[in-house]
Amino acid sequence: LVVPDNPIVPIIYGDGIGKDVAPVAQKVLDAAAEATGRDISWMRVYAGESARDKYGENLPDDTVEALREFRTSIKGPLTTPVGSGFRSLNVALRKKLDLYTNMRPTYYLEGVPSPVKAPEEMDMVNFRENTEDVYAGIEWEAGTDEVEQVREFVEDEMGFDSTIHDGPVGIGVKPVTEFGTKRLVRQAIEYAIENDRDSVTLVHKGNIMKFTEGAFRDWGYELAEEEFPEETIDEDTLWEEYDGEAPEGKVVVKDRIADNMLQQLLTRTGDYDVLAMPNLNGDYLSDAAGAQIGGLGIAPGANLGDGRVLAEPVHGSAPKHAGKDKANPSAMILSGRILLEQLGWDDAADLVHDAVEQQISSKRVTYDLERQVEGGEKLAASEYAEEIVENIHDLA
Ligand code: NAD
């Protein structure tokens, strides 16, 4: 992306705690921009509850158009009712803007409470496919005509004894395409090259699901070989020809079975760098990784398309904490850090990172961290963010 020093950046505050964390995060990002000689022109746009109040609809066309036009944007969480009501606005946004990757960096911030022994080894960036897999939502309820049409086939394939298994069956479909896989893996490899990362790991369950997850693995390696022959090396060649020592500047492309990968996340965290995963693996793995380095209050993310970014924290709208000025704004602030990186403002992004880390180290934190940190002091979200702004002024 080529951006001016005063870009227009659309922002959706979102529902629930979004209204607590988004405005204070905005102040932190403004401070970092100003400290590095720039200026963000925010364009407030609406989705969810506030859009219903203002325009009578959940996701106005004007909002989608703003995100499409201005390319680099940020949002707070949006509530999705379970089981009834409208479908997820997050999913709708990702589809309308073709944001096919969910990117979640997981890195340790000094002072953050962690359940694992060596959290400081964690420095991974997870690329999760956002549009396919069992999350495509192609499924049929037990008893429907569609299920009855294939029921006999399914039962035969599974070796059902219909005298025992005579109850209802629900059926879902798991589409994984070459196109969807390759564009995800391309983004992960490009990121690894641009950010001097050592490896990209394809995380799959191809031993069991050969034509979906196994194909994901094969297409991933194929893409690396076809499009990045100079910049990448696969793990087999690395051992056969280089005794496991990667030649200078080459990104190693490897693969791991998903269950093993979840285990390695705990035992050999430092061996992993950039991960590329189908939707479901990515969902589980990035939450498990996030929990090791401070949890939801801290975990940032972004949805990426071709030349388009919509940054957003991993957490939801946490309705029971909404409007209390208590939710941790770090996840929103650090999602803003991704936005600054995507604008090419690495110095401003680094300032945000350092200022948040300094604040957490001071143990003057929001309620979620305070109860886990020994000697912690509880601050309101707005106080916490104000102190981060002061840290930025001191660090700049
Ligand atoms: P949630 O992330 O909103 O909250 C789960 C719990 O995590 C909270 O009760 C709270 O204890 C803690 N938490 C979350 N964010 C925190 C923060 N910033 N600071 C401190 N503690 C925090 O998950 P949920 O309760 O499953 O979902 C609530 C709503 O959010 C649902 O409607 C769901 O669909 C939606 N949601 C939206 C997004 C999104 O917009 N991208 C993501 C996840 C969930």
Write the layout of secondary structure elements.
Layout: E1 8-12, H1 18-35, E2 41-44, H2 49-55, H3 61-70, E3 72-75, H4 89-96, E4 101-107, E5 123-129, E6 139-140, H5 145-158, E7 171-172, H6 178-194, E8 199-204, H7 210-227, E9 232-234, H8 235-242, E10 251-257, H9 258-267, E11 274-277, H10 279-291, E12 302-305, E13 308-311, H11 330-342, H12 346-361, E14 364-365, H13 367-370, E15 377-378, H14 381-395
Parallel strand pairs: 1-2, 1-3, 3-13, 5-11, 8-10, 8-11, 9-10, 14-15
Antiparallel strand pairs: 4-5, 4-12, 6-7, 12-13
Helix pairs in contact: 1-11, 1-12, 1-14, 6-7, 9-10, 11-12, 12-14
Family: Belongs to the isocitrate and isopropylmalate dehydrogenases family.
Keywords: Glyoxylate bypass, Magnesium, Manganese, Metal-binding, NADP, Oxidoreductase, Tricarboxylic acid cycle
Modified residues (Phosphoserine): 88
Task: Explain what this protein looks like in three dimensions.
With 396 residues, the chain is of the alpha/beta class. The protein has helices at 18-35, 49-55, 61-70, 89-96, 145-158, 178-194, 210-227, 235-242, 258-267, 279-291, 330-342, 346-361, 367-370, 381-395; strands at residues 8-12, 41-44, 72-75, 101-107, 123-129, 139-140, 171-172, 199-204, 232-234, 251-257, 274-277, 302-305, 308-311, 364-365, 377-378. The strands form 3 sheets. It has an 11-stranded mixed β-sheet, sandwiched between helices. A two-stranded antiparallel ribbon has the order 6-7. Strand 1, helix 1 and strand 2 (41-44) form a beta-alpha-beta unit. The radius of gyration is 22 Å and the shape is globular. The mean pLDDT is 93. The structure holds nicotinamide-adenine-dinucleotide. The site of nicotinamide-adenine-dinucleotide (NAD) has 20 residues, from loops. Its cofactor is Mg(2+); Mn(2+). Mg(2+) binds at residue 283.
